[in-house]
Design goal:
The complex is a heterodimer.
Chain A: H1 3-13, H2 16-43, H3 49-62, H4 65-86, H5 98-124, H6 127-135, H7 140-171, H8 182-193, H9 196-228
Chain B: H1 7-16, H2 18-45, H3 50-63, H4 66-82, H5 93-119, H6 122-130, H7 135-166, H8 177-187, H9 193-222
Classes of the chains: A mainly alpha, B mainly alpha.
């Protein structure tokens, strides 16, 4: 183990960290959005869509992420082309950047977990809260955003923290479809100076550091929310 | 003109190497369970130094992407261990995958098992002690039968994670299902990539369903040991 190489690798990987975290944040927010839609579909028993969601969840439970990423990588351009063709748009979907495909694949995968978290956290808020808010003259929308959501958020927060870490880890598979993140960058650096061990150790420590940071932040935020509610 | 192989051809080509995936999967599941159990013992018994090491290991294995863990074990472990006089220079990719997945699965299971152990009421320990059970008798006859039904759902999830993660060992050059799938997809000039990977997905879905079935079977068998909880009234 060479300390100087470790430091060089650290400096080499550092610039890619914000980009990786930004990618993770985008995927995380998208997964919450899709997860909420899935939870609503299941909660309100929308026919056909509900069966589709259940089937999709079963598929994702059995399929490893890397296989799903490959399926998306090879099929998404054709699917997009089919739809743009229907609309007579002149767009060649084979130029879709791989990062977009990674975003779609990972957010879909994580959203099926998020749906469970969101469903559980809204179920944990008792209906009396809604009734109390309505009797105080809140509109249903106000009651939902100001009374129900903050309480559900406290329940969901620890799960959201771990979901974010799942996303961070999932992005590391992007190197298979040429998306450059922390891990891919460490591989590039390793193959350029052939100090493989140092590069991987630095990458691992970075992921570890980010995980510890995220866990600490969610714990802090959670105790603040708890003290408020 | 190269003819694209049919679905059945691809499936049979992939199933020819399924035993490698299953071999890695089963060995690391068994070793991981053993490791997870011993690490849980260490945490529960509060053995100093070892307990801190367990915390570090389980935090590391859960925070770092499994693909990096695989690469670290495969590339970094042999040179590091050679400093201590242990020669592992001919570590095969399969052995490296098994080591990495065992550590990962063990670290993950520690959390599951610890929570399940904590779920057993303290009164059960005291009752067994007052009946004059030896610690070993107490563990095997009173505590373990109650830990198992609580731990089973978490163990099932851990197994699913393990199955998903065995799909990554081809990155180390193991010729498993995914490795073969990449070869097939490359051999036909990309004519049937989607088809190949959908078949791979189907094979993995069968694996996960089998593992889910096994867990459900065990859950049914151990239901009678489950005591009342806030959610249900227990078995027998």
């Amino acid at each position: 183990m060479n300390l100087e190489i470790l430091w060089q690798d650290f400096l080499g990987i550092l610039p890619i960290v914000p980009q990786t975290v930004a990618l993770a944040v985008i995927i995380f927010l998208l997964s919450i959005l899709i997860g909420t839609i899935m939870a609503l579909i299941q909660e309100y028993n929308v026919p056909i869509l509900k069966q589709m969601v259940i089937l999709f969840k079963l598929f994702l439970r059995g399929t490893p992420l890397i296989v799903f990423i490959f399926i998306m990588y090879y099929s998404l351009p054709s699917v997009v082309n089919f739809f743009t063709g229907l609309l007579n748009m002149n767009y060649n979907a084979h130029n879709i950047p791989p990062a977009i495909i990674l975003i779609v694949a990972v957010s879909l995968t994580v959203s099926s977990f998020q749906a469970e978290t969101i469903r559980g956290s809204f179920l944990s808020v008792s209906y009396g809260q809604m009734e109390a808010a309505r009797s105080l003259g809140y509109t249903p929308f106000q009651a939902f955003t100001r009374i129900i959501t903050p309480q559900a958020l406290v329940e969901a927060l620890p799960e959201f923290g771990s979901a974010f870490l799942v996303v961070m880890k999932a992005i590391s598979l992007g190197f298979m479809i040429t998306v450059v993140d922390i891990f891919a960058q460490s591989r590039l650096i390793a193959s350029s100076n052939s100090y493989y061990i140092e590069a991987f150790v630095v990458a691992a420590l970075m992921y570890w550091g980010i995980a510890v940071l995220v866990v600490t932040l969610t714990n802090k935020f959670e105790s603040r929310l708890l003290s408020k509610s | 003109m190269i003819e694209a192989p049919s679905t059945i051809d691809i499936a049979s080509l992939l199933l020819q190497v399924a035993h490698i995936t299953l071999y890695i999967l089963i060995i690391s599941a068994v070793l991981g369970l053993l490791l997870g159990t011993s690490l849980t013992m260490i945490t529960v018994k509060n053995i100093p130094v070892f307990k801190q090491l367990t915390t570090v290991l389980s935090s590391f294995t859960r925070s770092v992407p499994i693909i990096i863990q695989l690469f670290i074990v495969y590339y970094a472990m042999p040179p590091l261990l050679s400093n201590f006089g242990i020669n592992m220079s001919n570590l095969s990719a399969i052995t490296a995958s098994i080591i990495a997945l065992t550590l990962y699965h063990g670290g993950y299971l520690t959390e599951v098992l610890r929570a399940a152990y904590k779920a057993v009421d303290k009164g059960q320990h005291e009752a067994a002690d007052s009946f004059g059970y030896t610690p070993i008798q107490k563990f095997f006859r009173i505590i373990l039968p109650q830990v198992v039904p609580v731990a089973l759902p978490g163990w099932g999830n851990a197994l699913i994670h393990l199955i998903h993660d065995t799909s990554l060992v081809f990155a180390l050059g193991v010729a498993d299902i995914m490795g073969r799938a990449e070869l097939i997809a490359a051999a036909s000039y990309g004519m049937n990539q989607i088809q190949v990977f959908i078949i791979v997905a189907a094979i993995y879905i069968i694996f996960t369903f089998l593992s889910d079935g096994l867990v459900r079977l065990l859950e049914r068998k151990t239901k009678k040991y489950k005591l009342d909880s806030g959610l249900n009234t227990g078995g027998a």
